Amino acid sequence: MEKKVTFRSTWLPWLLLAPQVAIIAVFFFWPAGQALVQSFQQQDAFGTSVEWVGLENFRNLFNDDSYLESFQTTAYFSLMVAVLGIVLSLVLAYFADRAVRTALAYRTLLIWPYAVAPAVAGVVWLFLFSGSIGVVAYWLHSWNLPWDPLLNGKHAMALVVMAAVWKQLSYNFLFFVAGLQSVPKSLIEAAAIDGAGAWRRFWTIQFPLLSPTTFFLLVINVVYAFFDTFGIIDAATHGGPGKDTSILVYKVYFDGFKALDLGGSAAQSAVLMAIVIALTVVQFRFVEKKVNY
C-alpha cells in the first residue's frame, strides 16, 4: 500500500520549509538581486558615489573585444570539461562495475579526488606540470615535447581542463556506478546468451538505460564548468597567459575585485547567470527528449 503523510496543521509544512527557504533567499536570491541592480549602476571603487546608467554597462561589455573572446574561451573550456569528464568517468565506472578482486579499492581511490578543494586541485596540477619543478613536465621535456603553461596558452588551457576534469571525475563516477548497478542483470545475461559481445551489450542495453544519469550529469557538468572551476583557474593560471584561460566567471572576479569596475562586473555576472539558465533550459527542452526513463 502507498503511504501518505498528512499534515493536520496548515502552517507546519511551511515551518519545515522555512530554514531552507531562508538559506536560499539570503545566500542566492538576495546576492543575485543585488548584482542585477548593480549592473544598471556605475560606482567608484569605494562605493561612495552611485550613478544610475541603465544599459550602458551592458553596451560597454559587448563592445569589449576581450569580453567577447572570453565567450569563446568559456565555450571551449566547458565543452572539454563536460565531454571528457563524462566519457572518462563512464569508462572507469564500467570497469569498476565488473567483478574483480580489487573493485572496492578501485572505487575508493576514484572517489578521493572529490574531497579535494578546487584551489588545491589547481595547485597540485600546477606543481605536476610546472616547467621548472614539475615531474610530468620533466618527463615531457625528456621526450623532447615542449611544455610551458606560463607562456603557451594552449598548454595552460590543457592544464586547467585536466585539473577540472580530474576534480569532477569522482562525482560523475559515483552516479555512473550506481546507474550500472541498477541495470537488471537478467537483460545482460540474456544478451550474452544470444551471442552479444561485451561492447554490444554495453552500447545496446546498459548505455541507453543510463540516459537519465547521463543527462543529469551533463547539466551538472556544464554548470560546474561555468562556475565551480574558478578556484582551479585562479590557483593554476590566474587567467593567463594573457587572457587565454580567462573564462567568464574569472573575468567577473578580475574586473570587479582587481580592475574595480563594479558595475561592469555586475553586468557580467547577470549575463553569465542568463547564459547558464538558457543552457539549462535548452538541455531540458531538447536533449531530455532523447532520454529514456
Key features of this structure:
293 residues; globular; 70% helix; mainly alpha
Q: What CATH architecture do you see?
A: Orthogonal Bundle
Order of helices and strands: HEEHHHHHHHHHHHH
What is the CATH homology-level superfamily?
MetI-like
Strand order of the largest sheet: 1-2
Number of strands: 2
Largest sheet composition = 2 strands, antiparallel
**In percent, how much strand structure appears in the residues?**
under 5%
Poorly predicted regions: none
Mean pLDDT: 87
**Overall 3D geometry?**
globular
Radius of gyration equals 23 Å
Distance between the termini: 24 Å
- CATH top level is Mainly Alpha
Task: Decide which structural class fits the backbone.
Answer: mainly alpha
Helix content: 55-70%
Structurally, the number of domains stands at: 1
Q: Helix count? A: 13
Subunit structure: The complex is composed of two ATP-binding proteins (UgpC), two transmembrane proteins (UgpA and UgpE) and a solute-binding protein (UgpB).
Membrane topology: Multi-pass membrane protein
Keywords: Cell inner membrane, Cell membrane, Membrane, Transmembrane, Transmembrane helix, Transport
Family: Belongs to the binding-protein-dependent transport system permease family.
Structural summary, described in words:
- By secondary structure, the protein is mostly helical.
- It has a single domain (57-290), classed as MetI-like fold, CATH 1.10.3720.
- 70% of the residues lie in helices and 2% in strands.
- The chain is built from 13 helices and two strands, in the order H-E-E-H-H-H-H-H-H-H-H-H-H-H-H.
- The protein has helices at residues 12-38, 56-62, 65-97, 103-111, 118-128, 135-142, 153-181, 185-193, 198-209, 211-228, 230-236, 248-258, 262-285, and strands spanning 41-43, 50-52.
- Strands 1-2 form a two-stranded antiparallel ribbon.
- Helix 5 (118-128) runs parallel beside helix 11 (230-236), helix 7 (153-181) runs antiparallel to helix 10 (211-228) and helix 10 packs antiparallel against helix 13 (262-285).
- This is sn-glycerol-3-phosphate transport system permease protein UgpA.
- It is a multi-pass membrane protein.
- Its main location: membrane.
- It is found in: Cell inner membrane; Cell membrane.
